[in-house]
Write a structure and sequence with these properties.
elongated, 54% helix
Amino acid sequence: MVTNLPQFKAYSNKLKKEVEQIAWKRSEEAGGMAEQLAKKNAPHDLGFHAQNIGHRPSTENIGTVLYANAKYAPYLEFGTGGTVDVPSGFEDLAKQFIGKGIKQINLPARPHIIPAAYKAKAFMEKQILKDIEKL
């Protein structure tokens, strides 16, 4: 039981560090999970795209960045031409890849990166709450 302010501050700092460690651990697990799901569900015409999906720690805060290095990754994720399908909240990302309209190639969206990220995020949040309940 905490009975004074210095003791409370020490306890609070300890909890903060423990929660941060939990968040980093679960974030890395979620990144690995997202990578595996994205690779599994990626179009495998030649396999190059799936081989170039990965994750890395965020440089801005606790979290993981899921990435796809193939230049055509956004076109697989969002589609092209009249079949573009951009999930809500990803408009700014998708508009970076709008073409000049010279050709009309209608490739359907084959989302696999964003759905994998959402599944991993839900897993991570659930696990963090379970971990915090144990503190």
